[in-house]
From TrEMBL:
GO molecular function: biotin--[biotin carboxyl-carrier protein] ligase activity
GO CC entries: cytoplasm
Organism: Candidatus Acidianus copahuensis
Keywords: Ligase
InterPro entries: aa-tRNA-synth_II/BPL/LPL, Biotin_CoA_COase_ligase, BPL_LPL_catalytic
SUPFAM superfamilies xref list: Class II aaRS and biotin synthetases
Protein name: Biotin--acetyl-CoA-carboxylase ligase
BPL/LPL catalytic domain residues: 1-169
């Protein structure tokens, strides 16, 4: 697959979105370090040398399937990381180990009618040695005491995404697996929305990808952040 590599870049997501109209096939943008990486709602994403930071640009996706890509990508990344650690899904788009964030996912898309190009942004704290004190995060290196091969993980993640994409219409199977590995299941959480904050008990993710709690049902786009408390 066509791959662009940069030792340092503002954001792999921004680069992919800037060049995709000039290309006719799927491609990957990977960087050793990002200076302006972002997550949901353009929150800053810490991405120093050592981690695996990339965007997988996937063309020809039916626009109606785009909302499901966040869940299947979470499953794909979690499965790969489970070869190293006890990885779990923190709804809607993080992978955690003992509630510490080890990976984040950002899905963006550009639609042309009923067909979209999807930009699957993934950050994996692979060989990151330390984090700012305010970040409750971890890495494969800190968890296992060993460096990993970022290229091998990249290859496994891309293959895993493709495997789950082939199952994208098997909603029951996908949601069942999400709930099996849901880090917050039956635990008290803090849901931070744009204008309010709630403390609830998370119950499960429903077939529409919504988080069901004892104080309501929440869409991913309505929630800024979820914390286990």
């Amino acid at each position: 697959m066509l791959t662009f590599r940069a030792p340092k870049i503002t954001s792999t997501q921004d680069f992919a979105e800037a060049v995709h109209n000039m290309l006719f096939s799927d491609f990957i943008v990977i960087a050793d370090e990002q200076t302006k990486a972002r997550g949901r709602y353009r929150r800053e994403w810490y991405s120093p040398i050592g981690g695996l930071w990339f965007t997988y640009a996937k063309k020809g996706i039916p626009t109606e399937k785009v909302p499901s890509l966040s869940i299947i990508t979470s499953l794909a990344v979690r499965k790969v990381l489970s070869n190293y650690v006890d990885s779990r899904i923190r709804w809607p788009n993080d992978i955690t180990v003992s509630d510490r964030k080890i990976s984040g996912i950002l899905i963006e898309a550009e639609a042309l009618g009923n067909i979209s190009t999807v930009f699957i942004g993934i950050g994996i704290n692979s060989n990151v040695k330390e984090f700012p004190q305010e970040l409750y995060a971890t890495s494969l290196l800190l968890e296992t005491g060993k460096n990993v091969n970022n290229d091998e993980i990249l290859d496994r993640v891309i293959k895993s995404i493709e495997e789950y994409y082939r199952e994208i219409d098997n909603t029951e199977k996908i949601i069942s697996e999400v709930n099996e590995f849901l880090s917050m299941k039956e635990r008290k959480i803090r849901l931070i929305e744009k204008d309010s904050e709630k403390k609830c008990v998370a119950l499960f993710v429903d077939r529409y990808g919504r988080l069901v709690t004892d104080c309501g049902i929440f869409e991913a786009e309505d929630v800024l952040r979820v914390e286990v408390i």
